[in-house]
Amino acid sequence: MISENERKLEIFKDEALVHMDALYNSALKLTYNEDDSRDLVQETFYKAYRFFDQFNHGTNCKAWLYRILKNTLINKYRKKSNSVKHVDFNTVEPFLDTIVDKQEFAETYDENTYKHSVSDEVDAALSRLPFNFRMVLVLSDIEGFSYKEIADIMGCPVGTIRSRLSRARKLMYRYLQGYARKNGYIDSEKSDFEEIEADESIY
To answer: DSSP label at 19?
Structure first.
């Protein structure tokens, strides 16, 4: 007879861990640092496992994980102390063993896939976007979330998501004009993009 923790871990593997590669590659696009990305993903899944009882099964687990990832990333910027809350290690030890094994595959996946899936120019342009713009662009154009799902992840109205996504795409167009012209995607010497003053805050 399997224990409650073993049952929880099996369900977590089926519903949550299957999205690890997607979150890892998104984390790379948000942090541009492999070590930070691995730490961010590990912390995201660690929190998700601890609070998995609060997840409404049958809803979008991937969107729930991205919401945790977003909050975790922002909290890292806001953190002002290194204090660590006490956690019962016995409740998370089986999960930690699982996620370490899973992340070994994520590193291989990144090396063989991510570095060859986005051109250097596009990747560099994406890195220049303010955090909130980059996040909605990744969620929409790379991960394929709906406006409503992104709004739930980001914790803001759908109208705000539409506005940020529009401005993010315009900024990408602006940053990539030289690249597009060089590769024959744009013939005109003049641009028709709307000038934007982007908020450089991560919040």
So the answer is: G
Single pTM value for the model: 0.71
Rounded to whole angstroms, the Cα distance separating 88 from 65 reads 22
Reported as a single tens digit per residue, the pLDDT across 125-142 is: 888 888 889 999 999 998
DSSP notation for 34-55? HHHHHHHHHHHHHHHHHTGGGS
Half-sphere exposure of 56 (CA within 13 A, CB side): 4
Region of 72 (left: φ > 0; alpha: ψ -120 to 50; beta: rest) is alpha
For residue 104, the number of C-alpha atoms closer than 13 Å in the C-beta half-sphere is: 5
Q: For 41, how many CA atoms within 13 A lie in the half-sphere containing its CB?
A: 29
The Cβ of residue 71 has, within 10 Å, a number of other Cβ atoms equal to 15
Residue 26 CA: distances (Å) to CA of 30, 37, 93, 118, 181: 6, 9, 26, 12, 28
Residues of the chain with pLDDT under 70: 77-118, 180, 183-203
Geometric angle at alpha carbon 31, from 161 and 191, rounded to 5°: 55
pLDDT value, residue 196: 40
In DSSP terms, 59 is beta-bridged to: 57
20, 103 Cβ separation under 8 angstroms: yes
In this predicted structure, what is the pLDDT of residue 58?
Answer: 86
